[in-house]
Every structure is written in structure tokens, then in C-alpha cells.
Design brief:
Layout (H helix, E strand, L loop, with lengths): L1 H10 L4 E5 L5 E4 L3 E5 L17 E9 L3 E8 L3 E8 L2 E5 L14 E4 L3 E6 L4 E7 L6 E8 L9 E6 L2 H4 L4 E6 L8 H6 L8 E3 L3 E8 L4 E5 L9 E7 L9 E4 L5 E3 L3 E8 L3 E6 L5 E8 L1
Parallel strand pairs: 13-14
Antiparallel strand pairs: 1-20, 2-3, 3-4, 4-11, 5-10, 6-9, 6-11, 7-8, 7-10, 9-12, 13-15, 15-22, 16-21, 17-20, 17-22, 18-19, 18-21
Length: 291
């Protein structure tokens, strides 16, 4: 075991890995909403945690039944919700309740494995409500800074299967083909650099995995899809196993528990991060890879 650990450390010895403990997050319990902020948000501000590369917001939210975020605007951010459990309904402000028709990018009742993505751009408004009668919804809301302002607002929604996440990290988001200079046609087609992912207007990749007990997954920094070679990676462990999930990153001594994250700096595209589940339960891990 020591040989394996030392080998893992040596392969990424240049990386600076700094834990961000759950207890250092901002926390507010509004009754209907119980929320933790990994980065400064709303009334909670910590100058140490304002952003990491283009990653600006990472909130871990639980919203009680028959409550949620009423219609609210967004502008000039890339915003995505990663559903962990329960049900969350996304509804564009132009759609009245009861008149939505079937599921679409403007109306989607999301469940475990779904990711809803919004380009705020020049301005967009939507609501996110837990319309379930009994179950609390648990999800991550993440914001990234786009590579330019004034983009055309749009939505994307996609499902990512848990069984695939148990085989390795599954890419969720990757940069829009064409980059900051994408043509009108490229914006319309909305093709991502990694097939099967949601396109984001940033030099940014998101991945997610469900690491079996005592197993380890590799993450290739940049995912062979990004522009800048100098990278930053943030890893987050959602609170899914009542505190029992624990991971180690690239053989370092620090153990990350549920709710913890890690800032990984001084890494380059093509470097390999090794994320190991070190307890007796499956560990859900989200990787946010940014310039």
C-alpha cells in the first residue's frame, strides 16, 4: 500500500492540493432552504473563497417540498444544477404553470442524474421549485464565469446515468466548439468539445463519478478538451452517505470527507489526478476543471 501511495504522490508532486473543509463553508438554514456555500455567496463573504479560476459559485442545497426559488433573473453567468436526490422543476419565466406542455429546455422536472444548464448572457429569468409533495430535493448549484459577456441566453438539460459514473468519471460539461469566437451557426448547433456533454461558454470541464469502496478513478486534467494548458481543479464530495464517504487525492495524506472540497493548483493539461475512495461506502465526487 505504501508503495502505491508513494507512486501516486510522485506522479503529481508538482501539484498544490489544499483541502477546503465543510466547516469552512458558509451555511444558512432558511427553513425551506438549507444551503452550504463553498464560495462567497449572498450574505456570506470570505475573501479567501471568492472564486477559483472561472469557478465562482458552488452551493450544496436542500429545498423542502412545495417550496423553492421563485422566478429570478440571471445575467452573464453559466449556471448549472446537478441533481443528487429528489425532484426539482425548472420553468422559464415565459411559461405559466399548467401551460408548459411536455418536457423541454424551458420546462423540465429533474431527478437524480439530471443536469440543467443556463447561459444567463444578456438576461434570462426562470424558477427552480421543488413541487414534490413529500421529498426534499438535494442538488448542487454551480456558477462559472463565461469567456465573454453579452451571450445569447439559452438552456440545456441532459441526463447522466449512475451506472456509467460507477465505471469512471463521466464528463458532464465541456467547452463549446468554436470557443470565444464561435460563429452564430456554432452557437445555434451548440456542439461541445466532448461528445455527449453540455456545452459551456468557458474553458471549463465538469465530471462526476461514483467511486466504489477502496477503488480509484483517474481524471486527466483538461480532459483533452480545453484551451489553456495551465489548469486549476476543484474537487467536491457531496453529502450523500451520512458522513461515511471519504476520499484521498493522488496519494496525499489529507482525507476529504463529505462536504469537503480541495483546491488543486499548479497542474497542467494532461496531468493525471487519482481519486481514491478510502472507506467502505461508495463516494460521489464532482470534478470542476478550469483555467
Amino acid at each position: 500500500m505504501n508503495t502505491i501511495k508513494n507512486a501516486m504522490t510522485k506522479t503529481l508532486s508538482h501539484a498544490k492540493i489544499t483541502p477546503h473543509r465543510s466547516a469552512a463553508r458558509g451555511h444558512s438554514d432558511h427553513g425551506w432552504l438549507n444551503t452550504y456555500h463553498s464560495f462567497s455567496f449572498a450574505d456570506w463573504y470570505d475573501p479567501k473563497f471568492t472564486h477559483f479560476g472561472s469557478l465562482r459559485v458552488l452551493n450544496e442545497d436542500r429545498v423542502k417540498p412545495n417550496s423553492g426559488f421563485p422566478t429570478h433573473p440571471h445575467r452573464d453567468f453559466e449556471i448549472f444544477s446537478y441533481i443528487i436526490s429528489g425532484e426539482l422543476t425548472h420553468r422559464d419565466s415565459m411559461l405559466r404553470k399548467g401551460d408548459e406542455g411536455g418536457q423541454s429546455d424551458k420546462f423540465y422536472r429533474m431527478h437524480r442524474g439530471d443536469v440543467q444548464f443556463t447561459t444567463g448572457g444578456t438576461g434570462i429569468a426562470h424558477s427552480e421549485q421543488n413541487e414534490h409533495a413529500q421529498d426534499t430535493v438535494h442538488f448542487l448549484q454551480i456558477w462559472a464565469i463565461p469567456w465573454k459577456r453579452g451571450l445569447t441566453p439559452r438552456y440545456h438539460t441532459r441526463h447522466f446515468d449512475d451506472e456509467e459514473k460507477r465505471k469512471g468519471f463521466v464528463p458532464i460539461l465541456s467547452p463549446l466548439k468554436g470557443g470565444p469566437d464561435a460563429t452564430f451557426e456554432q452557437e445555434k448547433i451548440a456542439e461541445p468539445e466532448i461528445e455527449g456533454t453540455i456545452p459551456i461558454h468557458a474553458d471549463f470541464v465538469m465530471g462526476a463519478g461514483l467511486i466504489p469502496p477502496q477503488d480509484k478513478f483517474d481524471w486527466i486534467v483538461g480532459a483533452n478538451a480545453t484551451e489553456n494548458t495551465k489548469r486549476k481543479v476543484y474537487i467536491h464530495v457531496p453529502m450523500t452517505k451520512k458522513g461515511k464517504a471519504m476520499i484521498r487525492v493522488s496519494g496525499r495524506d489529507d482525507i476529504l470527507n463529505e462536504g469537503d472540497g480541495a483546491f488543486i493548483d499548479n497542474v497542467n493539461a494532461g496531468d493525471k489526478l487519482i481519486v481514491e475512495s478510502v472507506d467502505e461506502v461508495e463516494a460521489e465526487v464532482v470534478v470542476l476543471d478550469t483555467a
